[in-house]
């Protein structure tokens, strides 16, 4: 097995599986670290649940509006390098991300599977109209029909969208190379995607914390920013 750089050159079908660590260098905190979104918050998983949205929409909205949006965040070298690799001749690249910040698309990646949805798509729950995120940040009430607007993200107690699962599985089953980046890779079903890889596919993991995966892979325990700068 060669280096990650060599594998990126030799592989035609590549899947990047990305998590919160990828966006941390863009100033977006993860969820559970000592400086994460949940730190110091009382019952944050309830605040991001379907029950809270239904029963206490004002509380849900205040938490999401005040804690989830980072409009000044820009793609970092990891996002940009993945988009660049996608533009190389002969490459079929899919990014499957747990992140809901839209930075992969902002960096120029065209084939992105947002496994948990996106904060930047918003929909009125009553009439189904899609609305700009700027409108949602002003108010979660839709003036046209009085419905409650919500971001199109997967909340606790909700199922993942079938389309996202199917697109991710299609990419994984055809991939020559799978690169896991910036994630502890412990949250199911995201961490189960590699179960559907081809037997001969090559797997790399790039993460500051050591990952212990039940498969053959090469671990690069380092800051992903440093690694992707050199690719």
Automatic annotation (TrEMBL):
Query: What are the Deacetylase sirtuin-type domain coordinates in residue numbering?
Result: 1-231
Q: Where does Zn(2+) bind?
A: 124, 127, 142, 145
Record Pfam families: SIR2
Checking Gene3D superfamilies in the record gives:
SIR2/SIRT2 'Small Domain (3.30.1600.10), TPP-binding domain (3.40.50.1220)
A single Gene Ontology MF term assigned here is: histone deacetylase activity, NAD-dependent
Positions of the catalytic residues: 116
- List the keywords (alphabetical): Metal-binding, NAD, Transferase, Zinc
PROSITE patterns named in the record: SIRTUIN
**InterPro entries documented for this protein:** DHS-like_NAD/FAD-binding_dom, NAD-dep_sirtuin_deacylases, Sirtuin, Sirtuin_cat_small_dom_sf, Ssirtuin_cat_dom
Q: What is its EC number?
A: 2.3.1.286
Database matches in NCBIfam families: PRK00481.1-1
Specify the protein name: protein acetyllysine N-acetyltransferase
Which source organism does the UniProt entry give? Listeria rocourtiae
Q: What is the lineage of its organism?
A: Bacteria, Bacillati, Bacillota, Bacilli, Bacillales
